[in-house]
Amino acid sequence: MRLAIVGAGAVGRAVAELAGDYGHTVVGIADSTGAALGDPLDVAAVLERKGETGSVGDDDHEALLGTDYDALVEATPTTLGDAEPGYSNAVAALERDRHVVLANKGPVAERYDDLRAVTRESEAELRFEATVGGAIPAVRTVEDFGPSRVERVRGVLNGTANFVLSRMAAEGLSYDHVLAEAQELGVAEADPTFDVDGTDAALKGVIVANVLREARGQEALTLDDAAVEGIQNLPVSALSLAAEDGRTVRLIAEASPDGVRVGPRLVPENGTMAVTGTQNIVGIETEHAGRLNISGRGAGGPETASAVLSDVGRLPPD
Amino acid sequence: MSHADGVRTHTLRLELDDEPGELAAALDPIAEGGGNLLSVFHERGSRTPGGRIPVEVALDCPTERFDEIIAGLREQGVTVVAADEEFYGEAIRVLLTGHLVDTDLSETLREIERASTVAVEELSLTAPDGVDAVSSAYLRLGARSGEREEALAQVREIADEKGLTVVEPLEAGR
Q1: Distance separating alpha carbons of residues B163 and B64, to the nearest angstrom
Q2: Are the beta carbons of B145 and B58 closer than 8 angstroms?
Q3: Catalytic residue positions of A, numbered
Q4: Whose CA, among A232, A308, B133, B154, lies 20 to 30 Å from B168?
């Protein structure tokens, strides 16, 4: 497939670098300053230029969106509310009957029904595996079971928060100390607000809930519909008390057709939900087959890119 | 700390020999001890490594009678593996954090007991930075079967009024 990539952060870059391995051709990439086109695009040269000058190229975004590609990979930063520019990028591609693969959570968390309406009018497909759980095939597994047969999905969906909680519990270190350490290690971003206040996990929960609700003919939710609590106020003493009773705390996201809830929860220390470090876990509770747990890397450039490229692989060939 | 009537839900894990009449023999001492049998659970086909049958029993009884019931079971030759473990989720573990002492922790606990059928069975408190700072409490609450969600909602509400943070347990999934 011929891929156009919008967004040249960790995920967009990794998609560009790995696309060839998966048998695809990159024909354009855009960042916030401009775009580079080519048939095929010299990915290495463009990324080198980005490293040196901060910009992938001098072409404009319209040129990229209008170029000849089969699938648009939308990997711009997630934004809340109107989910722009990700939403309009996706719509521009769908209106040209070009497939869209999202790594950006905004369009499917905040404007799911709008985007689905545009997709129905298009001959192309929309996929968004990379928006939930990084490398973990969460959305696809729900789809494979049939979303109407999935009753609830729960899990650890934010690696930064999980790193902080598991380090605090294991080492008896304070929240601030561990967060600073996570930033040094690159596990937490310079502004980790959305990771620790539950927003990021909630967006993923909303996306899953939207898939479950769509299958039941219910309207989509947005972040505003989710009940969200973060881990910022959790003292290390609370974790020590829980440990005395063989329990620990994890930031758990729960998504069902009835809604989304994210917050710190007590779980058995050796239970399936108590993954450590930056690991994520998704537990899919099904009508006929009990619970299926999938754990793995929930973030990172190559990890998320692998989910994007799996989605690309599932698109119908021309 | 218990209900006005002193009746609480208890759980027992028993192991029975695979012989006719074993289950009836195991349940007699419960009725004789004044216990109200709520459920008997045995997973079909489940066996201990020694070939015995594990059975989980939930019952309501006055707390002071519970030990007599356990003694009665043992007299009958029934193996009582565990009593009052968290098989059915009646025991709810909750973390409370915030200015627990400033907001009068014992009053908070009394409110929780007043507002619901929950009994505070166990409490651990830690205030590493002194009583004026943020502290944490770990509670083991006893709730009757089927009243878990209601009990947690009450705890949430009371904590909310006092500006405390509650970390609720994640109940077992399917």
Answers
A1: 36
A2: yes
A3: 204
A4: B133
A221 DSSP 8-state letter: P
Q: What is the DSSP string of A42-106?
A: -HHHHHHHHHHHS-S-SB-HHHHHHS--SEEEE-SPP-STT-TTHHHHHHHHHHTT-EEEE--SH
Angle at A100 between CA A98 and CA A106, to 5 degrees: 145
A259-268 and B165-169 as β-strands: parallel, antiparallel, unpaired? Answer: parallel
Residues β-bridged to residue B95: B138, B167
Number of H helices, E strands in chain A: 13, 12
| ipTM for the complex shown | 0.82
| B130 at A interface, C-beta within 8 A | no
Classify the C-alpha dihedral A71-A49-A300-A82 as positive or negative.
negative
In chain A, residues with a C-beta closer than 8 Å to the C-beta of B170 are: 154, 250, 252, 265-267, 273
Q: In this predicted model, what pLDDT tens digit does every residue of B53-110 receive, in sequence order?
A: 888 888 998 878 888 888 888 888 788 877 776 433 457 889 999 998 888 888 888 8
Q: Which residues, in sequence order, are CB contacts of A305 under 8 Å at separation 6+? A: A11, A14, A15, A17, A18, A103, A130
* Cβ neighbours of residue A177 closer than 8 Å, sequence gap 6 or more: none
- Packing angle between helix A199-214 and helix A138-145, nearest 10 degrees? 20
**Bridge partner residues of A2 (DSSP):** A25
Q: Inspect the interface and report whether the beta carbons of A154 and B173 lie closer than 8 Å.
A: yes
Give whole-number Cα distances, B99 to A264, A308, B134, in Å.
Answer: 18, 46, 5
Token representation of residue A5 = 């990539």
Q: Is B26 helix (H, G, I), strand (E, B) or coil?
A: helix
Query: For residue A228, which of A201, A210, A267, A249 has the smallest C-alpha distance?
Result: A201
Q: What is the pLDDT of residues A96-145, one digit of tens each?
A: 999 999 999 999 999 999 999 999 999 999 999 999 999 999 999 999 99
Contact A237 B127 (CB under 8 A): yes
Which chain A residue is nearest to residue B123, measuring alpha carbons?
A241
**Chain A within 8 Å of B167 (Cβ-Cβ)?**
yes
Contact of A79 with A86, CB cutoff 8 Å: yes
AA identity, residue A177: H
As a whole number of angstroms, the distance between CA A238 and CA A276 comes to 18
Burial class (CB in 10 A: 0-12, 13-18, 19+), A43: buried
Global confidence as pTM: 0.82
Diameter of chain A measured on Cα atoms: 61
Burial status of residue B156 (CB atoms within 10 A of its CB: 0-12, 13-18, 19 or more): middle
